[in-house]
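Handout, page 2. Input:
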Amino acid sequence: MRLTMKTPSPRPPTLPSTKTYTLKPHFSSSSSSLGQKAEKLGKRWTEYQGMNNWDGLLDPLDHNLRAQILRYGHFVEAAYKSFEFNPSSSNYANCKFNKSTLFESCGLLNTGYKVTKHLRATSGIQLPSWVDKAPSWVGTQSSYVGYVAVCDNKEEIKRLGRRDVVVAYRGTTTCLEWLENFRATLTNLKTPCNKSGAMVESGFLSLYRSANSCFMSLQDMVRQEITKVLQTYEGEPLSLTVTGHSLGAALATLTAYNVKSVFSRLPVTVISFGGPRVGNRDFRLHLEKQGTKVLRIVNSDDLITKVPGFVLDEDVASCEGFHVVGLPSWIQKRVIEEAQWMYDEVGKELRLCSKDSPYLGATNVATCHELHTYMHLVDGFVSSTCPFRASAKRFLQR
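Output:
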């Protein structure tokens, strides 16, 4: 048996890129160019949502699946664009736009969706008293992290084959979110459904479950909104797609786990970009048992997808025979016994590589992790034997 050691590390800071790329939105629900492909998507929507674990759709990458991944990527992009990044603004860490104009203000036209809820994540870190005298942005405990949107356009519903509900999350932004990322040991989920020892990263769980006097937890916000949506559209075919990048990818996985635990009959799918590991082997097994489908988009050059913790090369039932070259035996024993760093990958993986693109040029730690890089790689990927298609260049602008 072999154990691969992965050293936990924080998210990298945003570094300047040598090139700036902008992706063009792919929304075209009313376009006649969809033709037979649109009809095919509607009839096979459960396949594209992963109900068959995307068998036969990833290598080579199915055209419709590529379009769907990019579509959800643009929803994540809107979560970033609608966040107020300016720390000197009185609106810092809040959403810049109201629900009715969010997509339009972010440059996403004709999505066929309406935003129904702004979502906030709250840190559970207890801050020292001196923070009260620091700039407000230092101790921003609760911040806008994404939104819930519901497909409300008849043509788009027909094209998709059901009414789709989207939960979209941005990545790490505020100081406290960065601090939560450092809390990389595993902690027990402690839910009535968790009887198997499922554990997840402490910081991610804190952001998902923490509340304060002003805001309920992200977990409760999502539950409340999904309950409302299901009551409003009772009797209709519905799906929930949770999507996010970086920290948002981790929150998306926790959201899907929680929603599926409460609404077991609702088809729940995660489309994540550049996400870190979230939980242990029991957490993965519970996700699979409840029927939650996860598609992880991974750039092999992205360090964030390799943390935190250790990951096993294969499924094992015991710790016998484990050996890590260069790691003292007493440390191995301690790690294995306490299992605080034993993570596992969840769902299916679409593995991409920055080096396969002839258009990206030199990349660094930050650019390999950027959402735009992921979108470009998804758009260009063909198959493991033909990694990149030349026509993908048209989706990049300098």
